[in-house]
Amino acid sequence: MKKRTLLLGTALAAGITYWWKKPKEVSFDYTFKTNFSPTVLWTYIEQAFRNSKESELWVQHLEELEATGIEAGNKVMAIYKTPFFAKAHQYYITEASYGKYFVYEPTAEHPLKGRAIVEITPTERGCNLRWRGKYYFKGMPLAAIYLVGYFEKAFFEGLQQNLYKIEPRMPQNMQVIDRVYD
């Protein structure tokens, strides 16, 4: 009996150790249909990344952002807010095409590795905003628990609510779809 219990305990410990060390993945992919022109939507997103405290688009109670703009090579400071504490992390914008898309990745110190892509695609009535990403982590860092357990759903629901709050207040001339794209 003792031998069986010891073997079972060893197998369980080995399984937990393997799971803990094995890289895990979390991904997300959200698309929002809007009546914004791509240029206007880009302006709102860039304003949020420059100083989210002054942005009506950003989900203030979850995160604050600060950057010099959306251009490749720029650093983004993100302060994630929880009911218990706030935690700062940095990202780099690694790729950007003005008005179309940008990619951001966490710095080496961040507990999550991976990237997110924000794309704006013109449509007949405005544009779509697609925000997708994939992150990897080992063990179960607090950042992964927070991202999966709370932040992702709350952030994208809040972003959607803010997008749809802003749209009806836009002057009609801002809702006109841009007709010229490179």
How far apart, in Å, are the first and last alpha carbons? Answer: 73 Å
Q: Helices and strands: which structural class? A: alpha+beta
Characterize the overall form: globular
Total strand segments: 7
Helix residue percentage:
25-40%
Largest β sheet strand count, sense and barrel closure: 7 strands, antiparallel
Order of helices and strands: HEHEEEEEEH
Helical stretch tally: 3
Alpha-carbon Rg, integer: 20 Å
Strand content: 25-35%
Q: Please state the average pLDDT score.
A: 81
Strand order of the largest sheet: 1-7-6-5-4-3-2
- Poorly predicted runs are 11-20, 172-182
Features of this protein?
3 helices, 182 residues, globular, disordered C terminus, single chain, alpha+beta, 7 strands
Give the secondary structure arrangement, pairings included:
Elements: H1 2-21, E1 24-34, H2 38-50, E2 63-67, E3 75-81, E4 86-97, E5 101-106, E6 113-122, E7 127-137, H3 142-166
Antiparallel strand pairs: 1-7, 2-3, 3-4, 4-5, 5-6, 6-7
Give an overview of the whole structure.
The protein is of the alpha+beta class and 182 residues long. 32% of the residues lie in helices and 34% in strands. It contains 3 helices and 7 strands. The protein has a 7-stranded antiparallel sheet with strand order 1-7-6-5-4-3-2, with helices on one face. A hairpin with a 4-residue loop joins strand 3 and strand 4. The protein is globular and about 70 Å long. The N and C termini lie far apart (73 Å). The model is unreliable at 11-20 and 172-182 (pLDDT under 50).
